[in-house]
């Protein structure tokens, strides 16, 4: 395959290793500087130039977009996507993960451990917010920090208030987060490729420091992850819309607590620590996907007018409870069940004979109007005329437009 690695630093460890891994496997690979692209737009023909030359036919792109050029970098990735080039991470996924608030918002509705977090604007709301996450000591975070810069631990409520006031006066948005003390300055980095964790390490903060980032002096050790940590890392990556990611988790009392998902995870620390060929795993994954790429369903489905994806919630007491998917006869209303969510379980393509339980959620594809008919009156602006013919008690949570 012909692969472009988008990176501002061709000589850094990660770029060199990825390039080498691709070459060793017989691929044609180039590291291209993300900001040297020009994006051309005209009717029916999205185009890209690299150093004033029209780019050739690439089969795949591996974006390594640094935080300082997120806007430009994701614009270039999006252009490749629109030109039907397979991108190992999409612009949408990169944008989701870059913002700590946005990523926690996306994760929060799923059964995935995250440290309790609040986001407030008004001074009056600060104190109650700190109390809600368990009081001091409390973690305060900038939304787009990296390498531990922008993460603080306030020992007292007074300190926390002062720090927040100062940061907000500097027009910074801050998150207030529960301090997961039992993690004891340690965190887990899981390197996810597709639906697998290909390597994992534990980073341990040194001395008085509570941040375990390698840039803050944290020391890495290889770790054998329990299944729960593997599942959590893979699901978080999928929820973000990423395929290659570094997932950072605290080891909480109740299991893994995700702090962030990195869309351009570094290779040096994890390869040195584990001795594993992470670069090779990334390249092999991309080569396999190029032959059989996954499609961004949301983008393609909206093209078929009137059809889309929606979630149907089965509340306690619903007459769907105890029925099989076949017996719900959703398919007669032009609705197909793609996935069943049950607690923290995800069941893709559930069998028609599967019986439904209270609090199940069905991810469906079908006629939006029919699914909209399932929203109860109080959450719907106006009733659809065909409501009578539809199951009354199923609740549609969101259609494709509003799912991020
Ligand atoms: N809520 C928390 N409780 C305990 N430790 C935390 C918490 N949040 C962050 N940390 C520590 O601080 C480090 C940096 O936080 P993180 O959110 O990953 O920011 P960055 O993007 O700067 O790496 C983490 O690796 C972890 O060791
Ligand atoms: Mg981190």
Automatic annotation (TrEMBL):
Return any one Pfam family short name: RimK
Please indicate if the UniProt record lists Metal-binding as a keyword.
yes
**Which positions fall inside the RCK C-terminal domain?**
296-380
- Give the keywords, sorted: ATP-binding, Ligase, Magnesium, Manganese, Metal-binding, Nucleotide-binding, Protein biosynthesis, Ribonucleoprotein, Ribosomal protein
Report domain ATP-grasp positions: 104-287
A GO molecular function assigned to this protein is: ATP binding
GO CC, any one term: cytoplasm
Cofactor section: Mg(2+); Mn(2+)
In its UniProt record, which GO terms are filed under biological process? potassium ion transport; SOS response; translation
Give the NCBIfam families listed for this entry: PRK10446.1, rimK_fam
Q: What is this protein called?
A: Ribosomal protein S6--L-glutamate ligase
What species is this protein from? Microbulbifer yueqingensis
């Amino acid at each position: 395959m012909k692969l472009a690695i988008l990176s501002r630093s061709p000589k850094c460890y990660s770029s060199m290793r990825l390039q080498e891994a691709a070459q060793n496997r017989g691929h044609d690979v180039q590291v291209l500087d993300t900001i040297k692209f020009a994006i051309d737009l005209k009717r029916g023909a999205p185009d890209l130039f690299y150093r004033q030359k029209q780019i050739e036919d690439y089969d795949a792109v591996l974006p390594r977009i640094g935080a300082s050029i997120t806007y430009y970098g994701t614009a270039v990735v999006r252009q490749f996507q629109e030109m039907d080039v397979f991108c190992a991470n999409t612009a949408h996924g990169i944008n989701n993960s870059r913002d700590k608030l946005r990523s926690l918002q996306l994760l929060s509705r799923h059964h995935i451990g995250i440290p309790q977090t609040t986001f407030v604007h008004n001074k009056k709301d600060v104190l109650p917010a700190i109390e809600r996450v368990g009081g001091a000591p409390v973690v305060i975070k900038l939304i787009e920090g990296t390498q531990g810069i922008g993460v603080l631990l306030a020992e007292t409520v007074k300190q926390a208030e002062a720090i927040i006031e100062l940061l907000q006066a500097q027009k910074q948005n801050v998150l207030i987060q529960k301090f997961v003390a039992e993690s004891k300055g340690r965190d887990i980095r899981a390197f996810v490729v597709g639906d697998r964790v290909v390597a994992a390490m534990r980073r341990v903060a040194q001395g008085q420091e509570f941040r375990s980032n390698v840039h803050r002096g944290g020391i890495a050790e290889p770790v054998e992850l329990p299944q729960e940590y593997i599942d959590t890392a893979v699901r978080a990556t999928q929820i973000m819309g990423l395929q290659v990611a570094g997932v950072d988790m605290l080891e909480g009392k109740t299991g893994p607590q995700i702090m962030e998902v990195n869309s351009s995870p570094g290779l040096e620390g994890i390869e040195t620590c584990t001795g594993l060929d992470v670069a090779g795993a990334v390249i092999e994954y991309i080569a396999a996907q190029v032959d059989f790429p996954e499609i961004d369903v949301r983008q393609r489905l909206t093209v078929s007018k009137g059809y889309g994806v929606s979630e149907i919630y089965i509340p306690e007491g619903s007459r769907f409870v105890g029925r099989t998917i076949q017996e719900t006869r959703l398919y007669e209303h032009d609705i197909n069940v793609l996935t069943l969510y049950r607690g923290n379980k995800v069941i893709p393509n559930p069998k028609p004979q599967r019986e439904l339980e209270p609090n199940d959620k069905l991810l469906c594809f079908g006629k939006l109007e029919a699914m909209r008919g399932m929203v109860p009156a109080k959450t719907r602006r106006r009733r659809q005329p065909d409501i009578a013919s539809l199951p009354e008690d199923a609740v549609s949570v969101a259609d494709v437009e509003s799912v991020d």
